[in-house]
Design brief:
The chain has 432 residues and is of the alpha/beta class. It has helices at residues 2-13, 16-36, 59-71, 110-121, 141-156, 174-183, 194-202, 225-231, 246-249, 255-267, 286-294, 311-318, 329-337, 350-357, 371-380, 384-401, 406-409, 415-418, and strands at residues 48-51, 76-80, 96-100, 126-132, 161-166, 187-191, 209-210, 239-242, 271-274, 302-304, 323-326, 342-345, 364-365. The radius of gyration is 22 Å and the shape is globular. 45% of the residues are buried.
């Protein structure tokens, strides 16, 4: 009975009528505060407000937050639903404030959460919402609509806003499409790959602009001391990183292929590092790794990493290996940024867009039983010409990633200066 009620509640809060009504409530909450603040942000507003991804054991989410802080100077307020979901590096703690709003993405306490967010907004210069893969309704219509509603709240109180580096599915939810089309009038939408941009333009969201994933703009690396100690006696040997995605494992068992990849690597003299990218209940990457390890494949030249590295440690590590095979896109981005080939098991349609930036469809791997055979052929066929193309593409992606920071670097003194930014039309009045 309890599970039935839970499912029913989930359907209700994800339904179009409920989400439309919720958007109206946001306006009812926001307009009075906008009037009290004279319809514009506080004249003493300073710093930037960031809505990051959820985090909770995902290195990619932490890497996007870190990349934002690497590139945005000054005071930043990071809004989390729960303290500890993401961490602030010690080097940034003196200028970063963490604001906890437990009901930020929940149904209960929605009005109170919006009031807290609005109070913070009127004291901020800009609002940035990390988009990643959660803006098109593919994972959750409700979460996508909630993030779009934050852009609308920013508009009500006169704060410039943007969505940072996100993907867009061909089959994006229709309610989300309509909401994004309206939001694009006043918010800057930075899409992280050309295929997603084409899809958005096709649906009438033609103010979206081309950028790249935030993590292409990350600047920091830090040695992982324990892994460095293991690598030291193997300096002369090429090393491959294998990541076994717990998310993919929920829908298809690829244990045989993972085992064959390890055997292939060892037969060719490669050292192997099995690296988890997500460590949390539900889609923990370590579950598959432990099953493979229990099959007795392990030897001294295979390292199973049983802890979560920081994004900086991952950046350091991928720069010291030969190849990466992964079911997690941000691990691939970190490897590509270091100029290393990264083969990605693609499940959500977002990987194809990433690899379109690199003109390298060979990096996209269909996660079906038997993939190991054709993947090893691709790895062995890697050429000097492909390496040169990869280097050129990395430079382009690094440049495109800077689109995510144009708004926060602009001196936000008025609409006139902001209207010059690609993807912003400050002269159009769109009612919600």
């Amino acid at each position: 009975m309890k599970q039935t009620l839970k499912k029913l509640a989930g359907r209700v809060v994800g339904s179009p009528w409920y989400l439309t009504a919720s958007s109206a409530v946001d306006v009812l909450v926001g307009v009075p505060l906008a009037v009290l603040s004279n319809g514009r942000r506080n004249s003493e507003a300073q710093g930037h407000l960031l809505i990051p991804p959820l985090g909770r054991g995902n290195i990619g989410d932490q890497a996007m937050l870190d990349a934002f802080l690497d590139n945005v100077p000054g005071t930043v307020t990071v809004v989390l639903a729960r303290l500890g979901d993401l961490t602030i590096r010690p080097t940034a703690q003196d200028r970063v404030q963490v604001l906890e709003i437990p009901q930020l993405f929940s149904v209960a306490g929605r009005i109170r959460a919006r009031i807290i967010l609005l109070r913070c907004l009127v004291q901020s210069s800009t609002l940035s919402v990390v988009g990643a893969d959660i803006m098109d309704g593919g994972y959750s219509r409700r979460i996508s609509m909630l993030r779009i509603s934050m852009l609308n709240l920013a508009r009500i109180v006169g704060v410039p806003s943007q969505v940072l580096g996100f993907s867009w599915k061909e089959s994006a939810d229709e309610l989300v499409v309509r909401a994004m089309r309206k939001a694009s009038v006043h918010a800057r939408l930075i899409v992280r790959d050309p295929i997603s941009l084409q899809r958005m333009h096709k649906r009438g969201i033609d103010r979206a602009v081309q950028g790249a994933d935030l993590v292409f703009a990350a600047t920091q690396a830090a040695e992982a001391a324990d892994i460095a100690l293991w690598l030291a006696p193997r300096k002369s040997r090429p090393t491959i990183i294998l990541n076994f995605s717990g998310l993919i494992n929920r829908t298809v068992n690829l244990d045989d292929d993972y085992s064959r990849l390890i055997r292939w690597a060892r037969l060719r003299g490669l050292a192997v590092i099995v690296l988890p990218h997500v460590i949390r209940t539900g889609d923990d990457d370590r579950g598959v790794s432990r099953r493979i390890k229990n099959e007795g494949l392990w030897d001294d030249d295979i390292l199973f990493v049983d802890r979560q590295l920081s994004p900086q440690e991952v950046s350091w590590l991928v720069s010291r290996v030969h190849t990466v095979v992964t079911g997690r896109m941000h691990l691939a981005i970190m490897a590509l940024r270091s100029g290393k080939p990264a083969y990605v098991l693609a499940t959500q349609g977002k990987v194809e867009g990433l690899m379109d930036l690199f003109a390298s469809p060979e990096f996209v791997v269909n996660p079906k039983p038997g993939f190991a055979d054709y993947l090893t052929d691709r790895i062995e066929a890697w050429s000097v010409e492909q390496e040169a193309k990869l280097e050129s593409s990395v430079a382009r992606c690094t440049e495109l990633a800077q689109q995510n920071f144009i708004l926060t670097r602009q001196r936000p003194l008025g609409d006139e200066s902001l209207s010059e930014l690609p993807g912003i039309n400050r002269g159009t009045d769109e009612r919600f």
